[in-house]
Amino acid sequence: MSFFDMLGMFDPGDGPRGPRRDSGATDDDPVIVDVQADGDDHGETPSAGKGEPPKRGVPRLTPRPLPNGPSKGTKILIGVVLALVVVVGLFFGLSQFITDLMWYGQLGFQNVVWTQLGVKFGLWAAYALLMALVSYVSAWLAIRARPDSSDGSTFRIKDDVIEVGKSFSSKTARRAAVVVSLVVGVMFGSQFNSNWSEILLMFNAQSFGTADPQFGIDNGFYVFVLPGLRLVMSAVSMLLLMGIVFSVVTHAMMGGIRFTMPVHGRGVLAVTKRARRQIGIWLILNMLAWSARQVIGVFTHLTQQGDRITGAAYTTVHATIPVTFIMAAITAMLGVFLGVWLMRSHSLEGAAKPSVRAAAALKAWRTPVIAIAAALVVSLVLTVAWPMLLQRFKVNPNAQEMESTYIQRNINATQQAYGLDKVKVEQYKATTKGKSGALSSEAESTAQIRLLDPQVVSPTFKQLQQSKQYYTFADTLAVDKYDIDGVSQDTVIAARELDLEGNDNRNWVNDHTVYTHGYGVVAAYGNKVAADGQPQFFESSIPTQGKLTESQKYEPRIYFSPNAPEYSIVGAPKGMDSWEFDYPTGSQGATNTFDGDGGPSVGNIFSRLLYAVRFGSDQILFSDRVTSDSQILYDRSPKERVAKVAPYLTLSGHTYNICIILISNEAIEKIPADMRDAFFAACKDGIAQASAMVLQANEDAIETLKANGATITDIDRTALYELCKPLYEEFANDRIPTELVEMVNAAK
């Protein structure tokens, strides 16, 4: 019984008394439904005659038009949504780049962005296209050299064996080669992209005016040209490697290289003549490129850091460099030999019995195997054994004589680099007894001997001059010289920077629109201290006052410093009340409005939206503190700003500071006996503090290295001392005072 039968409704023979069925009907008989299509008379059924009323109880399905797809309005809506998604995606994706353009443009260095972008993209595109071209040409040549028909069909008769097959057509293979070559080019195109600066340096090389003592080449070659040249050679090697890889793979796919069953005179491996020729040429080119890289590598020996000096030593000059040239020649000859052998060898094809073919193959392959093995042996002897033996048996026993020339080269280069080659050297006869008035002519210099250590005095500056918890000073202060009352004064100086971490009332408005800058500098005499030993300041306090304020009239507000906030929004229309906190005074504090040209404008909705995306803050978009005259300041460390506008410079934070205290025995004798012990104790305390600072800095550096994945190996100091003990004993004889050696032994 069907579902419709159960309901008693949809059988054409239904009447008021229930369903009627023919004697032959079953419960699974289909139910006939009267379906009315478009155009049918709504008062008739297909089975009814003209003028006859429709049968009662016959179900009717009302025709409804089926949709052909989304409506026009739906399509428009989908298009609009997709367009908005694309626009929003591009906006978010390009916000960093656009704001960088605004930052550089405000400083007048927008060309730095375009130069970097042009060079990076240009190098990437050029190398990607070149890589794709070489890969495709290699594959195309292999496709042309296929032994089968261009449609991929094969029909071969070998003795009584018939081979029939079907593979890729040449047209399909070329299309696949285009796609794969482009993918490979895009993947490897970044090799130049990340080293754009080396390429620019190579094409903008400058002469140093001095030549290296080994090859007589201008030193500018090693700084400007050599890094870029090595990069180019590496890129060429990668191109040729892709060429031979594509050639071998394509030949294997197209039938130029076949693996067959060793039956009926066939060998295991068969390579066509054209395939051997092409692979042989690619092999020669790869080996020649390798040889060229070896030659270029010779020049790197002159800049390598050795055990004692930087540059080439005796073994390098007399063994490593000549051997490198020899190995380059051997590599080139080996490549030509293997390539020619591969092109001329018939051991990879032809009909023969398996036993005969195996013997022929072994005989034919014996030549290249011997050549490669001989090259490896010669390489080990020349590059490893010979330099080691020369160093061990000739240089080490006569190190002073053998290395003197090359040590002197290093000394001369150092003197030239730092301008010390023009220093006038005079013999000075030292005396142990001082004379009255001997330093009178050097009174100006001796008066400037520094008493304050910029690496130690920072806590004192913070204690005396920080003023508020939202100010700070650098841990290591700076040294400088200023003309004070007509005298060049040695100075220890520090800027009073803003430190938001010390602010108790933090929110977005305060962090980015109110507390925007530090205030004033603090400067102390480098050669003077107060009666209680504290620094003697000649510029201090809030508001600033002192010698620099009186003479220099400098701007005390510090908007750019290493500790400045991530970003600050400054500036406002004229006549509007100021809200940028200037310095504390009373219960309110003084305020100021930035009126300089320090950052990009955020005066329109587009720039506000861009920076809201960049810094992830919707407050930039909706805050009333962002006005039509507002600027946004970020990347505020002077060092960072210089690095961004001059990416070709390498900035170092190292300083070389010498603080020497000289005191004669006569001066010590003049110190009262009850103060002498205190004086020496203070010296020891200073040394201890300085040593503790160095040790702590060393520990911090080690922890930083460990945090970044470096492995730190601790040495056995006792074992090291025992190894060095013969040296101490040797030098103690007549070169080093016995007292000093005893101090070293005591401090082991």
Question: What's the topology here?
Answer:
Layout: H1 3-7, E1 34-35, E2 60-61, H2 72-107, H3 110-144, E3 153-158, E4 161-166, H4 170-188, H5 190-193, H6 196-203, H7 220-254, E5 257-259, E6 269-271, H8 273-297, H9 314-344, H10 354-395, H11 399-417, H12 443-446, H13 458-465, E7 471-472, E8 478-484, E9 487-495, E10 497-498, H14 508-514, E11 518-519, E12 521-529, E13 535-540, E14 545-546, H15 547-552, E15 557-558, E16 567-570, E17 580-583, E18 590-592, H16 605-615, H17 619-622, E19 631-634, H18 638-645, H19 665-670, H20 673-707, H21 717-734, H22 738-746
Parallel strand pairs: 1-2
Antiparallel strand pairs: 3-4, 5-6, 7-10, 8-9, 9-12, 11-15, 12-13, 13-14, 16-19, 17-18
Helix pairs in contact: 2-3, 2-16, 3-4, 3-7, 6-7, 7-8, 8-9, 9-10
Task: Explain this structure.
- The protein has about 750 residues and is α+β, with helices and mostly antiparallel strands.
- The chain folds into four domains: about 1-65, no CATH class; about 190-400, no CATH class; about 450-645, no CATH class; about 665-745.
- It is built from 22 helices and 19 strands.
- Strands 8-9-12-13-14 form a five-stranded antiparallel beta sheet.
- A hairpin with a 4-residue loop joins β13 and β14.
- α2 (about 70-105) packs across α3 and α2 crosses α16 (about 605-615).
- The radius of gyration is 43 Å and the shape is flat.
- The N and C termini lie far apart (about 105 Å).
- Residues about 1-30, about 35-50, about 260-265 and about 655-660 have low confidence and may be disordered.
